[in-house]
């Protein structure tokens, strides 16, 4: 049984040296626990933010195994709730096998491919749906702007907004990614934030201003987006990836001035807040996927040992779609 532990906390950018792969004993599940074999691990920008300190969950410290959301097979059960062979979602760690309290494990439906339970029907799709619909309240004909547009959450935000009849503009890194967002994901436009002319390009791409900005990145891009917001616009604060992997994070200027003058509403959320509306989200997502309105892009990296590289690469913008690591077969 292999496990990846945080060897040292980063002070600047994350590198492979911050992790160590260890051979550890096979866990023995106690009373009420299950032994889980990891199939897929979600690679999230949040993994990096947990290393910066306590957030909505405890901080990850040096010496900790990296926590992760995973899809697993039950290998042994000491609980009547689950049986050997069940497919489950659980918060585990970067490891081949873990033992877990059966009450904290969620049995998954038999959807195939299993990876869809992590992308469109998992954290990415649910975050996109709840943030956009539950907080952004987009109305057909409005302009929705989304950053990290080619990423796990961003791809679904834009496609959901299109399905709801909005004009959709993305922000992503590099001309190639922006082209992919427009041609493959079907956004109306996508602007490269690395281009020094970003503000002008964004203004041209949003001739009627921005009604909903779904912010995955914070920092300078959030500042730029705020200038383009229409009166009574909604800013959905989903994450701040531009600030996770650096020691000098700058926030937007002109706050709260712009909020006051434009009567903006800016609201953060964590996907779990909307758990009571998950069934609605899943029904809507399934309908759109089956109708071909939402295409699902996944970026699967093979091998537990490649998890650190997968996270470092995600922060550098290597991925298109939902990044995850395959640890073992379905
Ligand atoms: P993504 O799959 O979206 O990957 C992250 C992308 O962010 C990269 O591909 C990269 O694309 C972009 N990026 C990296 N650095 C920067 C930067 N400095 N400025 C702008 N863009 C950058 O990752 P996740 O889906 O894991 O996360 C997306 C966001 O959603 C994160 O902020 C995360 O914390 C948040 N999140 C929030 C949840 C919630 O409940 N609130 C739940 C899940 C995620 P590019 O090539 O375009 O730079």
From TrEMBL:
This is Enoyl reductase (ER) domain-containing protein. Keywords: Oxidoreductase. It comes from Sedimentitalea nanhaiensis. Gene3D superfamilies: Medium-chain alcohol dehydrogenases, catalytic domain (3.90.180.10), NAD(P)-binding Rossmann-like Domain (3.40.50.720). SUPFAM superfamilies: GroES-like (SSF50129), NAD(P)-binding Rossmann-fold domains (SSF51735). One of its GO terms (molecular function) is oxidoreductase activity, acting on the CH-CH group of donors, NAD or NADP as acceptor. SMART domains: PKS_ER (SM00829). Pfam families: ADH_N_2, ADH_zinc_N. Residues 12-325 form the Enoyl reductase (ER) domain. It comes from the Bacteria.
């Amino acid at each position: 049984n292999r496990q990846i532990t945080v060897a040292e906390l980063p002070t600047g950018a994350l590198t492979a040296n911050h992790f160590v792969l260890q051979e550890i004993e096979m866990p023995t599940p106690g009373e009420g626990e299950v032994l889980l074999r990891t199939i897929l691990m979600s690679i999230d920008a949040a993994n990096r933010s947990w290393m910066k300190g306590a957030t909505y969950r405890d901080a990850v410290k040096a010496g900790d195994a990296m926590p992760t959301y995973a899809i697993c097979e039950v290998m042994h059960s000491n609980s009547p709730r689950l049986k050997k062979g069940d497919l489950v979602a659980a918060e585990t760690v970067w490891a081949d096998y873990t033992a877990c309290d059966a009450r904290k494990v969620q049995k998954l439906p038999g959807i195939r491919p299993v990876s869809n339970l992590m992308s469109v029907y998992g954290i990415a799709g649910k975050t996109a749906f709840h943030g956009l619909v539950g907080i952004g309240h987009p109305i057909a004909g409005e302009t929705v702007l989304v950053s990290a547009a080619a990423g796990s959450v961003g791809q679904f935000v834009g496609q959901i907004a299109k399905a709801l009849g909005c004009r959709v503009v993305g922000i992503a890194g590099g001309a190639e990614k922006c082209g992919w967002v427009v041609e493959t994901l079907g956004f109306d436009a996508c602007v490269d934030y690395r281009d020094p002319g970003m503000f002008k390009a964004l203004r041209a791409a949003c001739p009627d201003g921005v009604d909903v900005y779904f912010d995955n990145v914070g920092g300078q891009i959030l500042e730029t987006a705020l200038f383009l917001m229409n009166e009574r616009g909604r800013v959905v604060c989903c994450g701040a990836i531009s600030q996770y992997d650096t020691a000098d994070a700058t926030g937007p200027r002109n706050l709260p001035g712009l909020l006051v003058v434009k009567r903006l509403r800016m609201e953060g959320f964590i996907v779990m807040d909307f758990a009571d509306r998950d069934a609605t989200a899943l029904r809507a997502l399934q309908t759109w996927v089956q109708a071909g309105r939402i295409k699902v892009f996944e970026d699967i990296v093979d091998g537990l040992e490649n998890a650190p590289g997968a996270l470092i690469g995600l922060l550098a913008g290597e991925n298109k779609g939902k990044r995850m690591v395959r640890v073992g077969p379905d």
